[in-house]
Specification:
- The chain is α+β, with helices and mostly antiparallel strands.
- It has 11 helices and 8 strands.
- The protein has a 4-stranded mixed beta sheet.
- A hairpin with a 2-residue loop joins strand 2 and strand 3.
- Helix 4 runs antiparallel to helix 5 and helix 9 (about 300-325) packs antiparallel against helix 10.
Length: about 400
């Protein structure tokens, strides 16, 4: 289909979908599969892969029509890693067979994905990772440990980076794979967090055999492929579309309006400042999404993710102070393994504790500050003495 497709055509195709598969009488999965096959899943993707080769901006036309008709969505918060990280990476580097195999069940939500990147000794310095993948015929044998893996306890598939050549500098000896989480040798263990939940996991890989046809990109090009994942991850974390007073600032503003007895002048001034900053961040996110229409995400996503982490932590701290003694209460310390993070559906104590992880997950704030400084502001790069040293010779 021509890239000249316009909003009227998109609207007509959406109405055709609704007529052929009325949401009131069509099963949820059946409707989502029909939407994907009609090219209305992500309209900017290629024809046959859930899209129409249309401008990305026209996705809002589809979403508005379907929302008005009460059509089901694909529960994007539950499958955020697949949608926000795995899909664009598979689209950019996958073979045609890989795209056809993975994108449809990923978007429909039939297959959950997780991300096997960080390790106990390679978090902020991700390129120093030590998980090894050794070629054995047409199979790679993988051994190592990953950590802070969201949704690993639910996932069928994982995007995985592993070291395939220890004799070259750390950034050049990495390859990128798709790992079947049901394969022998994959062990998932819960990591209980400060919230009481085990939303994250650690994953042990022992002799896991991954066919070479589940590699993304060339051998040794894993760091390049991973950059696509990481840039999209930061956009998906920090740049999600929300309405004015959406997210955590809306929760605090609601409490302020409904509980006048809690107000003080100092808290009022701080709330006004954070409200303005949250609105600036929201509008900046809208601008970023408009830039994405014309290309791939860049370092701007790092700035958005930085703002997201700082604002969440400051807003949740203000909320606790506003609530006084009530803010010290915590509703449930029961160990559980949730399917998603729900910032606005829980109590203030949960928001305060969970937001502490925002400046670590998806790239630490310190690393993102370096990215903004070097790639956006053009400041001198931080000295890196290990840039040309073989990974096997690095101090550990």
């Amino acid at each position: 289909m021509s890239t000249a497709i316009d909003a009227a055509q998109i609207r007509r195709l959406t109405q055709d979908l609704l007529a052929a598969h009325p949401p009131a009488t069509t099963g949820r999965v059946e409707f989502l599969e029909a939407r994907f096959d009609a090219g209305l899943a992500w309209v900017h993707y290629p024809v046959g892969l859930g899209g129409l080769d249309a401008p990305r901006s026209l996705q809002s036309v589809v979403d508005a029509e379907l929302a008005a008709a009460g059509a089901p969505d694909n529960d994007p918060r539950r499958i955020g890693i697949g949608l926000g990280m795995a899909a664009p990476t598979i689209l950019g580097y996958g073979t045609e067979e890989q795209k056809k195999r993975f994108l449809r069940p990923l978007w429909v939500g039939e297959e959950v994905w997780c991300q096997l990147f960080s390790e106990p000794g390679a978090g902020s310095d991700l390129a120093a990772l030590g998980t090894r993948a050794v070629k054995d015929g047409d199979v790679w044998v993988v051994d190592g440990q990953k950590v802070w893996t969201s949704s690993a306890h639910l996932a069928r598939w994982a995007i995985l980076i592993a070291r395939t050549d220890p004799d070259v500098p750390k950034h050049r000896g990495i390859s990128y794979f798709i790992c079947d989480m049901a394969d022998p040798g994959v062990e998932v263990r819960p990591l209980r967090q400060i919230t009481g939940e085990a939303e994250f996991n650690e994953v042990f890989l022992t002799g896991v055999r991954i066919p070479d046809d589940r590699r993304l990109g060339a051998v040794g090009d894993g760091w390049k492929v991973a950059q696509t994942t990481l840039m999209n991850e930061r956009v998906s974390i920090g740049g999600s579309r929300i309405p004015r007073e959406g997210g955590m600032i809306g929760t605090v503003a609601k409490t302020w309006r409904e509980r006048p007895e809690l107000r003080t002048h100092d808290l009022h001034q701080r709330l006004l400042t954070l409200w303005v900053e949250a609105e600036v961040a929201r509008l900046t996110g809208e601008r970023l999404r408009q830039q994405l229409v014309a290309g791939q995400p860049g370092p701007e996503g790092s700035g958005m993710k930085l703002a997201f982490a700082r604002l969440n932590q400051e807003i949740s701290g203000l909320e606790l102070e506003l609530l006084g003694d009530e803010g010290l209460l915590y509703s449930d310390w029961t160990m559980s393994r949730p399917e998603l993070v729900d910032f606005t559906g829980r109590d203030a104590g949960y928001r305060y504790l969970r937001s502490k992880g925002n400046s670590i997950e998806g790239g630490t704030s310190e690393v993102l500050l370096n990215i903004v400084a070097e790639r956006v502001l053009g400041l001198p790069a931080e000295p890196r003495n290990d840039k040309d040293v073989a990974w096997k010779d690095l101090a550990r």
